[in-house]
């Protein structure tokens, strides 16, 4: 099953009992190192394998440390929805992260790792009553809201729960996905929602927002922090107990934009929350901690030649992990696992997923060298909203895609 060289190097819940392959990398050739590992997993022949992921735990450690360096005073509560792979959750728990859970299943997955309920924010402003009851049973006592109906449900089923008022993120954050169309109190709803909680006898512990996924206009964080401060002041004016949590949400992408966003956030926190030093600031990063840590290998299972055009079928598609193409605007840039040579001829190629839906297309008119059935394509940076949004259509179960654990150093 696993290459001889494998040996466990990181012990974390979710990783325990699973083999971890250690390999060397340097900054320049991480992709090559991952490719080498993929080759060793496939082994000679490789026809029995189907699409699988490699999770590079060292990348998770690097990303987590990068967050702690840039935003030392902001504890990340990883947004489980982004990728609930237990080894990722376990590694993050070991590193000291908290968690943003949006459903009972997500809470169960995190608690199963031994994480204390106090490290979980139930960050879904609209929850089924049965799940609110479950949160009460297991002691998850902090949840978001943005409607009066939610106040009534929490009061009835979990009166000991504290609330975080989710406010709408700023307009035009130039985000990939705008979450403000669905969630977040508008400015004129803030006071009525604070009053509703007050009447219900529920404590509003703080404020949250989400500027939108992969927000490129980083000043949006400053605007949201200003708005959040306004809510803190509104609550104080209503005579409510001092709020103690500011949740700056997610929307981060690893790289230069993250550093820029962190700079904006630090300045804004100093300016607008500097006089409230007891406020705990948390974040809910999803993509930032998952995207670049996962690589997927998919096997070519079919081929058709049409003149100069090549068509291939692979064993994952838009109903599987590559659902990220539709759900997350992932731009696939598959690379053949086989090494290429200078001057190798390429062909305009279409790559289909395995289901019978003609929309199950991965790339069209994409230049690839000639491949044969049994070759492999590699998809980099596929850890965000990929496996977690796939389905089981046509009997191709996304949950059947194995994840192999790697630790590169
Ligand atoms: N928090 C909430 C409430 C969300 O809805 C999401 C994503 O949908 C996240 C955090 C994670 O966002 P991201 O992956 O952009 O960091």
Automatic annotation (TrEMBL):
Keywords: Lyase, Pyridoxal phosphate
Cofactor(s) listed: pyridoxal 5'-phosphate
UniProt record similarity statement: Belongs to the Orn/Lys/Arg decarboxylase class-II family.
Chain positions found as N6-(pyridoxal phosphate)lysine: 81
Orn/DAP/Arg decarboxylase 2 N-terminal domain mapped to chain residues: 58-290
Reactions it catalyzes: L-ornithine + H(+) = putrescine + CO2
GO MF term list: ornithine decarboxylase activity
EC number: 4.1.1.17
Functional pathway: Amine and polyamine biosynthesis; putrescine biosynthesis via L-ornithine pathway; putrescine from L-ornithine: step 1/1
Active-site feature positions: 356 (proton donor)
GO biological process, one term: putrescine biosynthetic process from arginine, via ornithine
Region of the whole protein represented: 89 to 497 of 497
Gene Ontology CC terms: cytoplasm
This protein's name: ornithine decarboxylase
Subunit structure and binding partners: Homodimer. Only the dimer is catalytically active, as the active sites are constructed of residues from both monomers.
């Amino acid at each position: 099953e696993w290459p001889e060289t494998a040996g466990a190097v990181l012990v974390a819940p979710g990783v325990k009992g699973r083999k971890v392959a250690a390999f060397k990398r340097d900054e320049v050739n991480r992709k090559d190192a991952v490719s080498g590992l993929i080759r060793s997993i496939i082994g000679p022949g490789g026809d029995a394998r189907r699409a699988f992921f490699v999770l590079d735990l060292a990348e998770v450690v690097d990303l987590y440390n990068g967050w702690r360096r840039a935003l030392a005073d902001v504890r990340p509560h990883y947004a489980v929805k982004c990728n609930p792979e237990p080894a990722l959750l376990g590694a993050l728990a070991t590193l000291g992260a908290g968690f943003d859970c949006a459903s009972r299943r997500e809470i169960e997955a995190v608690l199963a790792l031994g994480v204390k309920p106090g490290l979980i924010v139930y960050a879904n402003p609209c929850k089924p009553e049965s799940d609110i009851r479950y949160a009460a049973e297991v002691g998850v006592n902090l949840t978001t809201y943005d409607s009066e109906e939610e106040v009534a449900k929490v009061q009835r089923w979990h009166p000991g729960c504290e609330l975080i008022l989710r406010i709408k993120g700023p307009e035009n954050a130039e985000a990939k996905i705008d979450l403000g169309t669905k969630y977040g109190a508008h400015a004129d709803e803030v006071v009525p929602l604070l009053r509703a909680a007050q009447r219900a006898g529920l404590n509003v512990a703080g404020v949250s927002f989400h500027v939108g996924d992969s927000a490129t206009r980083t000043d949006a964080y400053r605007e949201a922090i200003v708005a959040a401060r306004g809510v803190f002041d509104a609550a104080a004016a209503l005579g409510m107990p001092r709020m103690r949590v500011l949740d700056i949400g997610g929307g981060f992408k690893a790289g230069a934009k993250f550093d820029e966003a962190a700079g904006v956030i630090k300045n804004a926190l100093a300016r607008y929350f500097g006089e409230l030093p007891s406020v705990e600031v948390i974040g809910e990063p999803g993509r930032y901690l998952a995207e670049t840590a996962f690589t997927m290998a998919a096997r070519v299972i079919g081929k058709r030649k049409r003149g100069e055009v090549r068509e291939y079928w692979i064993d994952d598609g838009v109903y599987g992990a590559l659902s990220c193409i539709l759900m997350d605007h992932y731009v696939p840039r598959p690379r053949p696992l086989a090494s290429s040579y200078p001057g190798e001829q390429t062909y305009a190629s279409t790559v289909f997923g395995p289901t019978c839906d003609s929309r199950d297309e991965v790339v069209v008119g994409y230049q690839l060298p000639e491949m044969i059935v049994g070759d492999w394509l590699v998809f980099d940076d596929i850890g965000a909203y990929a496996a977690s949004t796939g389905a089981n259509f046509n009997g191709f179960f996304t949950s059947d895609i194995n994840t192999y654990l790697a630790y590169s150093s």
